[in-house]
Amino acid sequence: MCGIIGYAGHRPAVPLIVEGLRRLEYRGYDSAGVATVQNKEIDLVRAEGKLAALDEKLSHINVTNSTFGVGHTRWATHGVPVEKNAHPHLDHDKNIAMIHNGIIENYQEIKAELVTKGYEFRSDTDSEVLVNLIAEGRKHNDTMLKAVSWALNQVEGAYAIALVAVDEPGTVYAARVSSPMVMGVGVGENFVASDIPAFLPYTRKVVFIEDGELVKITSSSWEVFRAENLAPVEKEVQTINWDVQAAQKGGHKHFMIKEIFEQPKVISDCLAGRININSSTDIGEVVLPEISAMEPPERLHIIACGTSYHAGLWGKYLIEQWAKIPVDVEIASEFRYRDPLLSKGSLALAISQSGETADTLAGIKLAKQKGLPILGLCNVVGSSVARESDYIMYTQAGPEISVASTKAMCSQLTALLLLALYWGKRKGVLDEETYSRAVQDLRNLPSILDAELPAMRARAKELSREYSEANSFFYLGRGQYFPLALEGALKLKEISYIHAEGYAAGEMKHGPIALIDPKFPTFAMALKDELFPKVKSNLVEVQARGGEIIALTNPGVELDVEHRWILPEVWGPLNAFMALPALQLFAYETADYLGKDVDQPRNLAKSVTVE
Ligand code: M6R
User: Fold this and answer.
1) Between the CA of residue 334 and those of 31, 51, 330, what are the distances in Å?
2) So what's the pLDDT on residue 389?
3) With a 6 A CB cut-off, is 607 part of the ligand 1 pocket?
4) Cα-atom radius of gyration of the chain, to the nearest Å?
5) Which pLDDT does position 147 carry in this prediction?
6) Which of 260, 360, 394, 405 to mutate for ligand 1's pocket (most ligand atoms within 8 Å of CB)?
7) I need a surface site. Which of 13, 332, 533, 604 has the fewest CB within 10 A?
8) Which ligand 1 atom is at minimum distance from the Cα of 404?
9) What's the sign of the alpha-carbon dihedral 203, 205, 208, 209?
10) Ligand 1: which of 330, 354, 381 to mutate, judged by most atoms within 8 Å of the beta carbon?
11) Catalytic residue among 2, 270, 305, 378, which?
12) Would residue 425 show up in a list of annotated catalytic residues for this protein?
């Protein structure tokens, strides 16, 4: 969590850093701050609340013209979100300003030691302990580089830090362990940040910083060292193909609605290069060069959190059905603390949009310890999941900025479907008819979805007006729609704060149905498939208790409920790609109608990089 940026260049640092923070604000928004150095003094401005509060504060003061500095947008871990706990933090003598994302686990011992040496603390954070430890290190070392290394050798935990110091004008130091950090290499300017969008308007040349590395940037140079011994590290400069527009709202009210509408393109982008068209037959073939060297696994363990976990649950249906591979889908925060029985021949599949989710990374570590190879399914190029995986398949969804994940799930479903087809074919267990139908219809799916999205939005808007007063919702589905029911409920609760439960429709009568009354509506996934008759009976049971129903369904389906929301029917599992945006749009329109902060819901952050 938390967004950090450090800049050393030729432009005034404060406005550039604040702009960068705006593009990182999805990572945390409890408080924000910026620090620069001028005339041997640190200029520090911090504000409680969203970035707008910092902006407002900055508009009333004369900020420095300094061309280097650091900035932070916070998601609180240690210390309540008030100004004194906002970053940057200064050391006791106000010579160093540091920003920190992560948790210093042994901060209490270090703090006790520093207190005996006369250090006083102004905040409740673990971060302030680290900046003071670096200041202490400066007393024992002749350069700031050595002082930072000295201090980092003593801390345990996760961190991405960046700092400026009065005695080294023009230089920013940064380091990471288990928290994301990427360096941007510009012309006459260099950057460090938690994520690429922070500096995307200035450069697309990036260097991914690894755990245990320490970076020194100035306007004209950058160097990377091993933090423990300052051995120089050779790094590769990569050019990323994200464009600035992709990281902006592009005329939409919120990132979330923009990202929902991007889903047709996301499907096409995820398919690009992965379906080879045979010109004589016009039947495509799934090619996954990323995993061609790997035999299909005997068993698959999917590890993920939140929306990515729901995608994994959906993938289980197809991978078991088409590739005949048994699949266990694990919530990463549970998996990491179990002693799972992982047999030889199994593969761990880690799904993560950000590639920085702490629990998923810990799950990867455990699976590795137990001897499993790791396949990462991830959106962010060069992220920790990508780097920790033996094989990596990128979902190609482009930057997802809204905290509520939408298009990332669509891309994950596409990739999982491709995996099921690919393994099914390689094992020779998937019939040709299903294979070619799936490939062909997948290719046509983006245009069908694109044409339908405006009508879906209109329907979502209508229904959201009628149900925005509800205190609770059930989301019900069976088969491939059960994971979507979970996802629909998650979307509604995280952005509209309306309580919602996703359930397997058949489980209702084992307890939850007791909650149904005329004020407790149900959002049902009643699409045409072999399980529809079962869903229909479950809905009759809900109606018998006075519950109102919105049903996502298809043309020609007979269903007597309060609201039928008819989606065009596509082939088999592809119907999930039509239902998913409907669920997202209903949550979006409800939250927007209720005036909620759609892109930055309370208490949440985009990447959960702490436990
Ligand atoms: O980046 P990841 O896919 O690993 O993130 C996992 C979850 O934190 C994420 O999906 C979260 O549940 C979203 N807020 C859901 O909208």
Assistant:
1) 31, 34, 7
2) 96
3) yes
4) 25
5) 97
6) 405
7) 533
8) 16
9) negative
10) 354
11) 2
12) no
- Cis? peptide before 326, omega within 30° of 0: no
Same fold, 3-247 and 255-593: no
**31 touches 66 (CB < 8 A):** no
- 186 Cβ neighbours under 8 A, 6+ residues apart: 9, 199, 202, 203, 205
Q: What's phi and psi for 492, nearest 5 deg? A: -65, -45
Which of 608, 609, 610, 611 best tests ligand 1's pocket when mutated (most atoms within 8 Å of CB)?
608
Which residues are CB-contacts of 388 (< 8 A; sequence separation ≥ 6)? 350, 361, 364, 365, 368, 374, 376
In short, whether 404's Cβ falls inside 6 Å of ligand 1 is yes
CA separation for the pair 205, 16 (Å, rounded): 18
* CA–CA distance, 215 with 356 (Å, rounded to integer): 20
| Look-up of token digits 């673990």 | 126
Tokens of 310: 């729901």
Q: Which helix (H) or strand (E) holds 266?
A: helix 263-271
Q: Which regions in the chain score pLDDT beneath 70?
A: 1, 79, 242-247, 278-282
Which amino acid type is present at position 223? E
Q: Check if 249 is active-site.
A: no
Domain ranges of the chain: 3-247, 255-593
Degrees to nearest 5, angle at CA 477 with 375 and 602: 70
Cβ of 414 closer than 6 Å to ligand 1, yes or no, is no
Q: Which CATH superfamily is domain 255-593 in?
A: Glucose-6-phosphate isomerase like protein; domain 1 (3.40.50.10490)
Single-letter amino acid, residue 553: T
Q: In Å, how far from its chain's centre is CA 605? A: 9
Beta carbon of 307 within 6 Å of any ligand 1 atom: yes
494 lines ligand 1 (CB under 6 A): yes
Cα of 52 from ligand 1 centre, angstroms: 25
Tokens at 414, concatenated: 């596409």
Angle value at C-alpha 36, between 30 and 39, nearest 5 degrees? 150
Its pTM stands at 0.80
Our answer on whether the CB atom of 95 is closer than 6 Å to any ligand 1 atom is: no
The tokens describing 432, both together, are: 């040709």
The residue among 242, 568, 553 whose CA lies nearest residue 401 is 242
